[in-house]
Structure to design on (616 residues):
């Protein structure tokens, strides 16, 4: 008897959204630390923030939401941050994969993400009314809007007394964020306003991505059986730091009443690990529709701001990234996630930590298990950080470095010669376009483009390659990585 | 000993350890420790061949000859400057 | 040259890591007294 258990799952759909939050950049880890040392920095930073239209028109951001392909982006001369200004005066903030959400709209969703009393996020009465009216008119996110009347408590006085963090847009106060002021929360450093804002940003941006996924697929939230979050937070109190619960909190906001969920953590390989887990749950026949969702990192906003200020550039790391995927059983159309034994690349604990050893495990071993050579893969998607952000901060084009590693591996394995490295990279590579975030730039921003190209018959195979700097937890020197193969559905042609 | 493959940043790092932080931004602004620094690529002849083959041969291929030359030249300039 | 030398190691995740440099230095008889790997992404 035929059973789904023997069939590979598919990635039915995805969403890719950005949230432009320039005024939250001061709460990013690096700006916060520098402002504490020298308060004059805040004024300089705020003066270099981009307007919404500029962030929307920025070509890498247009690529993230699918209005440009990576190839089209690569053809646009650098610098992109200048090239986009004035060229397209009203760029589309909606693309095939999702949307670039404005800060004001996000504040309204952030307020709705609160569940505590007294509230952690509170907009001023005027902002509450205005921004929720705006949210109610949104074609995809209207369901998230709150009622007309906000809280009767006044956040203004608390901001004045510096007991709450202000939420502003262009100098105007919109609301504020409180710490957990209840008796259990008052002395807990994990529950201060800045830390809670991180979790709330992940929840709210992940919610935007999941809403867009449901909308794009035309599926009701009650159809989702399971939600896996792989976002960029460590929510929890002093006794359960980083303990999870984000998947269900996002599912709750989106009305996924029949779903349960859990969080998967694996540094930058989080999204890859979550997709593989989702695929395995579907393949096992446990769930039909699994949503994987990732909200963005507040901590990395403004991470490279010093380099931008030094060069008189706008602060380009001003967006939260968010993404969601729908993993289901084979529908005969959607691209297939290869999950046969050995098909998923990973770095064994016993393997050497040298680049060569790690990449052998990540690329060559799964290819061998699938009976493929490196040249059988049309595109490799490694970390896809926007080079315009990375290069100015002194770390170089990280995407290109990853392709040099992939090409070096092909040379070591006698699949190409050293002289062929540049042409090999040209063929299998792409330019980076993801914002500076933690896990979200890792390979998966290519998903929307890959799904479209496979449906059009222009792409057969793509390998998604995620590295994870486990050593950042200070508990191991190990390095991890997860790779998976996405393949166009063989039934599509017949 | 450095592992970063960006010549401009390497110059700043190597200068900082030798003559003090040229930007006067960090803790070593105006403090000359007089420390010599090297990039690992410069020390191929000093490392046992088996360790080099395991840890570094692949890194050399990744970086490419041109960049390695530039890195080695940058480091030499700072040490001799 | 590295024998019995004390070495401070500054690695980079996307280039040569601190671990890789340490293994080379130790194989050459050097002593690593400080090791860090930056992650810029």
């Amino acid at each position: 008897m035929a059973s789904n258990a023997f069939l590979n799952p598919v990635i039915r759909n995805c969403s890719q959204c950005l949230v432009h939050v320039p005024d939250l950049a001061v709460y990013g880890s690096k700006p916060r630390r520098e402002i504490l040392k020298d308060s004059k920095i805040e004024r300089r930073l705020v003066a270099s923030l981009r307007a919404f239209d500029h962030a929307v028109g920025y070509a890498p951001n247009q690529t993230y939401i699918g209005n440009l392909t990576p190839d089209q982006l690569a053809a646009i001369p650098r610098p992109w941050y200048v090239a986009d200004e004035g060229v397209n005066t009203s760029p589309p903030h909606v693309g095939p994969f999702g949307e670039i959400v404005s800060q004001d709209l996000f504040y309204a969703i952030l307020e709705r993400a609160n569940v505590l009393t007294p509230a952690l996020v509170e907009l001023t009465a005027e902002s509450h009314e205005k921004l929720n009216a705006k949210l109610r008119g949104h074609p995809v996110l209207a369901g998230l809007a709150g009622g007309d009347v906000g809280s009767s408590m006044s956040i203004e006085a608390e901001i004045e007394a510096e007991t709450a963090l202000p939420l502003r847009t262009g100098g105007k106060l919109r609301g504020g964020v409180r710490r957990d002021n209840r008796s259990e929360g008052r002395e807990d450093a994990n529950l201060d306003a800045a830390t809670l804002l991180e979790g709330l940003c992940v929840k709210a941006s992940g919610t935007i991505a999941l809403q867009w996924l449901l909308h794009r697929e035309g599926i009701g939230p009650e159809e989702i059986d399971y939600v896996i979050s792989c976002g960029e937070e460590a929510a929890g109190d002093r006794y359960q730091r980083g303990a999870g619960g984000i998947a269900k909190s996002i599912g709750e906001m989106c009305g996924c009443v029949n779903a349960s969920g859990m969080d998967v953590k694996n540094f930058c390989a989080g999204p890859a690990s979550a997709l593989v887990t989702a695929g395995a749950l579907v393949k096992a026949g446990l769930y039909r529709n699994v949503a994987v969702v990732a909200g963005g990192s507040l901590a990395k906003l403004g991470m490279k701001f010093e380099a931008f200020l030094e060069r008189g550039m706008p602060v380009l790391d001003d967006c939260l990234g968010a993404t969601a995927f729908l993993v289901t059983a084979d529908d005969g159309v959607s691209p297939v996630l290869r999950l046969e034994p050995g098909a998923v690349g990973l770095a064994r604990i016993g393997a050497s930590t040298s680049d060569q050893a790690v990449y052998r495990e990540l690329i060559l071993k799964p290819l061998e298990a699938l009976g493929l050579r490196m040249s059988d893969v049309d595109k490799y998607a490694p970390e896809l950080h926007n080079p315009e952000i990375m290069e100015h901060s002194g770390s170089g084009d990280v995407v290109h470095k990853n392709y040099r590693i992939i090409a070096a591996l092909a040379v070591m394995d006698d699949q190409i010669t050293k002289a062929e490295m540049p042409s090999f990279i040209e063929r299998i590579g792409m330019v980076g376009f993801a914002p500076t975030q933690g896990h979200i730039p890792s390979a998966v921003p290519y998903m929307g483009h890959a799904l479209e190209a496979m449906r059009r018959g222009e792409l057969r195979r793509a390998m998604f390659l995620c590295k994870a700097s486990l050593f950042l937890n200070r508990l191991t020197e190990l390095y991890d990585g997860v790779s998976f193969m996405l393949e166009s559905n063989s039934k599509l042609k017949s | 000993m450095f592992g970063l493959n960006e010549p401009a940043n390497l110059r700043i790092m190597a200068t900082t350890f030798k003559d003090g932080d040229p930007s006067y931004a960090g803790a070593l602004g105006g403090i000359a420790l007089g420390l010599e620094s090297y990039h690992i690529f410069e020390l191929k002849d000093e490392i046992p061949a088996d360790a080099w083959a395991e840890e570094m041969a692949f890194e050399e291929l990744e970086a490419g000859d041109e960049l390695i030359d530039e890195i080695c030249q940058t480091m030499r300039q700072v040490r001799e400057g | 040259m590295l024998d019995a030398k004390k070495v401070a190691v500054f690695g980079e995740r996307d280039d040569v890591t601190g671990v890789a440099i340490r293994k080379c230095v130790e194989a050459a008889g050097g002593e690593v007294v400080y090791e860090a790997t930056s992650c810029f992404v």
In short: Chain B touches chain A at residues 5-6, 8-9, 54-55, 57-59, 61-64 (CB under 8 Å).
